[in-house]
Amino acid sequence: GSWHRMWTAAVLVLSVGSLLTANATRPSFSLLANGRKRQGALLRLGGGGLLVKGTPLAWEDSLQWLSYVREHGVLQFIHTFNQRKDRSNEKLLWGEELEYPILKVDKEAKTVKMSMRGDEVLETLRHREEQSGRSDNRKEASAWHPEYGSWMVEGTPRMPFGGFVRDLRRVELSMRLRRRRLIAALEDDEIAPSVTAFPLMGLPDTTHPPADIKGPVAQSDLCTDALINPHPRFATLTANIRKRRGRKVNIKVPLYIDTHTDERLQKENMPNGDDDLYMSGLPDVMCKRKHTIEMDAMCFGMGMCCLQVTFQARDIQESRHLYDQLAVLTPIMLALSAATPILKGRLADTDVRWATIAASVDDRTPQERGLDICEPTHKGQTSWMAGGGKRRLEKSRYESISSYICNCKAGAEDKSATNKYNDIDCPVDENAMATLLAAGVDKTLARHVAHLFVRDPLVIFSERIHLADSENTDHFENIQSTNWQTVRWKPPPPNSDIGWRVEFRSMEAQLTDFENAALTVMTVLLSRVLLYFRLNLYVPLSKVDENMATAHTRDAVLTERFWFRKHMADVEADTAGTEEPEYELMTISEILTGKGAHFPGLLPLVFAYLDSIGCDTATRDTVRRYAKLLEKRATGQVQTTASFIRHFVKSHPAYKHDSVVSQEIAHDLMMAGAAIGEGRLDAPQLLGDVVIEPIYADGAYEVPLESVPLDLQQRNELIEKYSTRAESDKQSGKTVSDGWSAPAAAQASLHVSSLQRSLSDAALKGSRQPVRREWSREDQGTDGEVDVLLTSHGCTCANAPAGSSDEDSDEVQNFQRTDCPTHAQPTQ
User: Fold this and answer.
1) Is the per-residue pLDDT at 596 higher than 80?
2) What's phi and psi for 260, nearest 5 deg?
3) Pairing relation of β-strands 484-485 and 398-399?
4) Are strands 342-343 and 786-788 parallel, antiparallel or unpaired?
5) Looking at residue 692, what DSSP letter applies?
């Protein structure tokens, strides 16, 4: 239908996220015409700003342009708003993004380092994608993008997933393909485990090649500037954050105190070790300096990897509604995906990355942070800054949202559901607010946009200053893309068929594609459930912020409770005030599976939704396995990635129970992480009974069935070689066919035992013999012969021919494994 024609007319490439995501500095959407990129300086435009050929201005040179960019950024938004606000009936398109670190390992020396070949690997991946990727859209394909770190790359689907239930089964396949292609681009001594944070960042001798610290950009005492992507935007961003702040960033995370930690600290005799410090992003937590992990550079945060999902909404109203409702879920999904228990070679007493990144990009002046001091370097500068550099800003640029934006009841009631729960400080730029209201933007949305503009632009390209506001959104995106919040509301780019979008940004990267796919698919389904059942998840934003702090707690998914709405009623119907609190503290298990008769739980609603729209059996089984993973995490039957990593370290024979993660431990951890992600090592503590099919570099790209004749000499040599081998096989009693084996056979013979021998028994205990199962086409019968639309309204569904989507291939079917006793067939 029109959804399919949209793809073929102008292929929308979803590199879901933003130019400056939790750890990336690059755009999020691309337009391709007939599969070819539009040429020019503006290669890709999206929620994260521009990555262009040009000259980024140093902070001192950009001061005179700050107000100009802010002013015209507002005007550019107004033009987009008025031009696209009536656009409706957009199809559901969505996608995800994952980042990967490239690490250099020395198996003999037991060391692991960041391999600063990100640019080289990126070019290899893009070249191979261009040369060997298919253009008939019958297979999954990948797109590759630069990341903040010079040791990182980002992978996304080349094309968006669509609005049909079978698209849910494409996610894991797409992720597996990306991992396979990345492995194929690595050197023999490199790995790319999908970990959130490199555990030794900031320690000496952890880069390859070696590089000096204390560079002029970050001026870090711990990290080299060589860790920053060589594109000039990234270095300028890093330097300008430091200069606007007036000093280096100051990241403080509580240290995990083990049995011998204080004994080690006493020997080290840290200067001012007994000083009390407030922890970053955790206003109620204070620790001694000696019990704090201190970091001083942007790469500690932006060098982290994460998982983000972006949805295209039907219209602007649906996008605003989704933004609000999904914001409530961000702390829950952050806790479920917790994966960051190690920072700077130390075990942390937190499990997630969020506060670390927030502090790593905190460009607020002392006065904006509430301190009554001025930085000497700011002399003559603050008058150029937003708010004169003095306006009190409670949050970093990287934080949870500060206002709901849905215009419930079309703004007719001052106490509508939206305004009722906006109970935290949300500073706005007064000039921007007045301009937006005068242009007809409703007060609720104007507040959100004016709040974005209390920040200054961080990177201004000299060639992209004087632009037509009716044709460009560079200045708006400059501000929008560097407000890194838990969800991001994304207006359509100019001159495109892209609609209003929402980006879900809180989740952490997982070790396996199964886990990453599970989090992605469940997030997509929750977005559909919110719309289909007209749910209301509103709680005061002060409670959402409290939930974000709670999500940082060690093992929060099991030990903590989160504020959540007791009755998920229709948003529009919820305008009559009530004395009874509408929310209460719940465990994540209760939020997912239900609490008593009054709260059904999110997972049962997902199941009800899929059954209501007519989901096929294979997709239902896939979703059921994903849901089971989250449910088991919430009940402690399997570990979060953070818990798994922490247990690995504490069980390692080289660990001295002093909170220190040594090179040897980090090497073994990263090797195990890569092996688990590639299906070479089972991890029942992490995955339960789920088996990851092995991923090899072999077969990473499609091979054409060539028909161009060989030259005569090549032909004769090849025929002679194979006829000689065939004759030898027959003489030895083998069949000719047995004598010919695929290249993958040699790889398959590499048993995981060699890896197990290199790791400690204690760190790998719990290994088991997995039961491998897979779907075959015969198992499905006639169920699912017509695909079902992931509808978000009413109880009707649209059908499309099953062959209209890529996942109809046998390759996809092979990855649909189940433990369902009725349908599963053991793999022979």
Assistant:
1) yes
2) -115, 15
3) parallel
4) unpaired
5) P
Q: How far is CA 243 from its chain centroid?
A: 28
**Amino acid code (one letter) for 211:** A
Among candidate residues 65, 25, 41, the one with its CA nearest the CA of residue 235: 25
Question: 283 vs 211, which has greater pLDDT?
Answer: 211
Q: How far apart are CA 46 and CA 92, in angstroms?
A: 18
Residue identified by tokens 């390992």 is: 105
Structure pTM?
Answer: 0.86
Q: What is the DSSP letter of 710?
A: P
CA–CA gap between residue 289 and residue 275 (Å, rounded): 5
How many of the other CB atoms lie within 10 Å of CB of 732?
9
Inter-residue contact 140 to 170 (CB < 8 Å):
yes
Task: Quote the CA–CA distance of 789 and 251 in Å, as a whole number.
Answer: 46
- Distance, in Å, from the CA atom of 359 to the CA atom of 654, rounded to the nearest integer, reads 32
Amino acid at 490: K
Tokens of 477: 């995106």
Best CA proximity match to 480, nearest among 463, 508, 466, 501 = 501
Residue 454 in tokens: 């209390």
Spatial contact of 254 and 285, defined as CB atoms under 8 Å apart: yes
**Structure tokens belonging to residue 287:** 């620790």
Residue type, 58: A
CB 24 within 8 A of CB 145: yes
DSSP SS3 for 669:
helix
H-assigned helices in 347-402? 354-360
Give Cβ neighbours of residue 483 (< 8 Å, ≥ 6 apart).
397, 452, 455
Distance CA 17, CA 15 (A): 6
Q: Which residues, including other chains, have CB under 8 Å from residue 332's CB and lie 6 or more apart? A: 547, 551, 562, 564, 588, 591
Closest CA relative to residue 118, chosen from 253, 13, 26: 26
Residue type, 164: F
Bond before 209 cis per omega within 30 degrees: yes
At residue 517's C-alpha, the angle toward residues 612 and 528, to 5°, is 30
The residue to which tokens 């209501």 are assigned: 612
The C-alpha atoms of residue 219 and residue 53 are separated, in whole angstroms, by 26
| Max CA distance (Å), the chain | 90
Q: Summarize the confidence of residues 83-88 as an average pLDDT.
A: 94
Mean pLDDT of the chain: 85
b/e code 443-456 from CB counts within 10 Å (16+ = b):
ebbbbbbbbbbbbb
Considering only 309-313, 465-469, 727-731, 764-768, which range has the smallest mean pLDDT?
Answer: 764-768
Cis previous bond, 684, omega within 30: no
Contact status, residue 493 vs residue 473, Cβ threshold 8 Å: yes
Read off the pLDDT of each residue in 301-314 and give the average, rounded to a whole number. 98
Tracing tokens 């606007």 back to the chain, one arrives at: 244
What are residue 582's phi and psi, to 5 degrees?
A: -90, 0
- CA separation for the pair 478, 462 (Å, rounded): 13
Burial class (CB in 10 A: 0-12, 13-18, 19+), 305: buried
Pick the closest to residue 621 from 742, 469, 783 (CA basis): 783
For position 828, what pLDDT does the model report? 29
**DSSP E strand boundaries for 289-417:** 292-295, 307-312, 342-343, 346-347, 398-399
Q: At what angle do helices 443-452 and 430-438 cross, to 10 degrees?
A: 140
Cβ neighbourhood burial of 465 (10 Å; 0-12, 13-18, 19+): middle
Q: How far apart are CA 333 and CA 634, in angstroms?
A: 11
Question: Beta-carbon neighbour count of residue 180 at 10 Å?
Answer: 19
Strands (DSSP E) found in 684-727:
none
Q: What is the pLDDT of residue 704?
A: 81
Reported as a single tens digit per residue, the pLDDT across 608-625 is 999 999 999 999 999 999
pLDDT confidence band for 703 (50 / 70 / 90): confident
Q: How many residues does the chain have?
A: 828
- 3 state SS of 120: helix
